[in-house]
Write a structure and sequence with these properties.
InterPro entries: Leu-rich_rpt, Leu-rich_rpt_typical-subtyp, LRR_dom_sf, LRR_domain-containing. Keywords: Leucine-rich repeat, Repeat. Pfam families: LRR_6, LRR_8. This protein has 296 residues and is mainly β. The chain has a domain of 108 residues: Ribonuclease Inhibitor (Leucine-rich repeat, LRR (right-handed beta-alpha superhelix), Alpha-Beta Horseshoe), CATH 3.80.10.10. It has 2 helices and 13 strands. The chain is elongated, with a radius of gyration of 25 Å.
Length: 296
């Protein structure tokens, strides 16, 4: 039995994972579905070759999941659905090669960080709006073209929202985003936006905005509503000028407008009065000389 690689103990009525499993050092697949298991022993969690652990429909609590379980380089599937978890296991970020994670039908309500980047998501589940404690949501690199993302305004604690390369357009830009009073960091780079969506101008709490690699041709004078903005990346768009109201962003420290179509007349004369500006990147534009305002 020492060479056993796959074991299934589904619907056996067990309350504990048998200690004998700790001796199966070649075990790769462990299935304990539909039992009464309350915890997984440390010795079992440390089995060196575990790839798949299926504990669906048990009585697991967070205290019953040892941290060592997440230290396996080959661990690819974890199913803890239909248990009694109240939070996402804190050591989950150690599972660098995890492909499938199922935590559905638990009591998890206090998720603060959710990263689903680089998948094949075409929509978001309506249940997402329940995550009222969520502070960071990463949606980068998903084909969300037909998704209106109506769940977002319900995420009242959201501070960071990254939607890089999610096929955002003016028609599918999330309505009500400006109601998120805590939103500070937005990434909309690599999308199909011809201009900055109007709701963005209403988010006065913004500190960081990356809207590079779009098709933006102009900026509204409403840009001065971003009074707290510290970082602005508008690189690789189609801008020909910067509005004078940009110079009223007194908190701005880093401004990137490289690879646009800005010429000498497109730079506000008062740009040099932005005393807190540390980085002004305007490479690869249409300048023939450095504007005097930059040197003041």
């Amino acid at each position: 039995m020492a060479g056993l690689r796959w074991i299934r103990l589904n619907r056996t009525g067990i309350d504990n994972v048998p200690q004998e499993l700790a001796h199966l050092e070649k075990l790769e697949h462990l299935s304990l579905v539909h039992n009464n298991v309350r915890d997984i022993q440390d010795e079992v969690a440390r089995l060196p070759n575990l790839r798949v652990v299926n504990c669906r429909h048990n009585r697991l609590k967070n205290s019953g999941i040892p941290a060592d379980l997440f230290g396996h380089d080959d661990l690819s599937v974890l199913d803890f659905s239909y248990n009694q978890l109240k939070e996402v296991p804190p050591d989950l970020d150690r599972s660098k090669n995890l492909l499938v994670l199922n935590l559905s039908h638990n009591h998890v309500t206090d998720i603060t960080y959710l990263d689903v980047a680089d998948n094949s998501l075409e929509t978001l589940p309506p249940q997402l709006r329940r995550l009222t404690q969520l502070q960071t949501l990463i949606l980068d690199d998903n084909p969300l073209l037909h998704a209106q993302l109506r769940q977002l305004p319900a995420l009242v604690s959201l501070e960071t929202l990254h939607m890089r390369n999610t096929q955002r357009t003016l028609s599918n830009f999330p309505v009500g985003l400006d109601s998120l009073a805590n939103l500070q960091d937005v990434d909309l780079s690599y999308n199909d936006l011809p201009r900055v969506p109007e709701p963005l101008y209403k988010i006065s709490s913004l500190k960081r905005l990356n809207i590079s690699n779009n098709a933006i041709t102009e900026l509204s004078s409403l840009i001065d509503t971003w009074a707290n903005l510290e970082f602005l990346n508008l690189s690789r768009n189609k801008l020909t000028e910067l509005p004078n109201s940009l110079c009223r962003l007194t908190s701005l420290r880093k401004l990137y407008v490289n690879s646009n179509q800005i010429d000498f007349n497109g730079i506000p004369a008062s740009i040099g009065k932005m005393h807190d500006l540390e980085i002004f990147s305007i490479a690869n534009n249409n300048l023939e000389t450095i504007p005097e305002g930059v040197c003041r």
